[in-house]
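Hi Prof. W.,

I finally got the Cytochrome c oxidase subunit I prediction working! I wasn't sure whether to trim anything, so I left the full sequence exactly as given:
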Amino acid sequence: MFRSQHLSYKYALFAYFLFGLQGLVASGGAIDLLFPDLGNPIPFASGRAFHLNVSIYWPLIGMIGAMYFFFCQEAEREFYSLKLITINFWMLAGTLGLILGSLLLGFNEGREYLEAIWPLKLATAACTILLCFNLLTTYLASDMPRSRATLISMVTGSVTLIIFYVPNIVSYAHPTVDEIAKFMVVHIWEEMSLELIGTGVLAALLIQVTKVKRQAVETAIYLDITFAVLAGIIATGHHYYWIGVPSYWLWLGGTFSAMQVLPAIVLLYTTVKSITFKGIFDLSYRDKITMFLIGSSMFYHIFGAGFLGFLMAYPPLNRYVHGTYITSAHSHLALFGVFGFLVLAVCFHILFTEIMLGKKMYRWCWGAIISLNAGLLTMGLGLLIAGGLQVYFWRVIGLSIGETNEFIRPYLFIRAFGGFLYAIGSLTLTFVVIKSIWPKIQVIFQSEGRLSIVKCDDLHRMHGLVEELLQEEKKIEPLLKRIQVLYQRLLLFDKEK
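And this is what came out:
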């Protein structure tokens, strides 16, 4: 195991902490929406900005941690700079803390999803530049083929994170230009940059866990990259009609939206074709949880993001459903359903690579994941029905907003109930992860210090000795003694810690 992988643990743990926090905040927002007279101590606008920003940042932090974990595995070498991995984490954590704190205090630029003040956006851009620099220098120094698809996918995704974020550090006087810049993050980040990074990370994970053939996966990744770039950039055009650009963008965006479901189907088909049911049953408890979370992500990718997104982007429908609760349903199913579940999967895999999780805790994990899925589906259903009634009563019949809201109110209770189930799942899973990791918290936050170096080097040596053991049967006894010495040394370090 590489030391770079060890340093990525803190990213995965922080992502889980923010995920649990998001569940609490979202539930509070849903209750406030239904009962506005309860007297929420946090203004609704500040709470909503907090919810939107944390829903973007926790998957981003988890995905960056996953890149640090899987990129060095695919490049088969340590990162160019281990110190930069640690610096990048503390910069990200500090920036996010300041963004969330400032939003609660009312420092809000008023741009949905990008409400943070510009110095904090500048800090976010600096974090993505640090990540990209470390990835590129490692990629160029690697002895692996330059054409390795997992590496290309992750590098391309991280470069586009910068390209599409930098224009949003400042705002623009012309509202159309300002909205186009905003969609570079709100849509293109999710539908292209994170799609590229997620594909590379997911492929590396599947190669490791399911032993799927690299050649088959790499072909799927190249197809995925092509679809993600075309669909990610042009499909965003179905929003442009509403911000003052020519109407042909509505058809261009709607047409290319049909392609967005293809990457997930290609990768899913390749994986299912390459693995067997016996192979799935032989997986460890950890890997079964990981695969179930990935399966959840694939489901929402195809149905919540892909098909629902395509129907909404179809121009004759888009004119009616744009900006209704149907859009909100799509946002929840696409953002958390696709990237949320994927990040939970890779972070769970990362955190419990070296740390053991008890069988009882695995049962709690299964319960939490079922609750998350039940909550998300219930929320999505309630929002879809409410959105459909909004379209009919408000935009077809022509009732006022107040009269329409009275008709859809019962379905917002269904949405709130779904949010309650979701919050139970998110808090339970977060509790299980943090409780299990807590005894090793100092090791998780160990920088590139001596203890982690010695432990990783010892693990590498143990791995080499086991390999020798399998090939040199006559030397079993002396090799076992050497392994025993190393094992005792590892235990001693743990006790000292």
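The chain has two domains: 3-350, 455-496. Does that look reasonable to you?

Thanks,
D.
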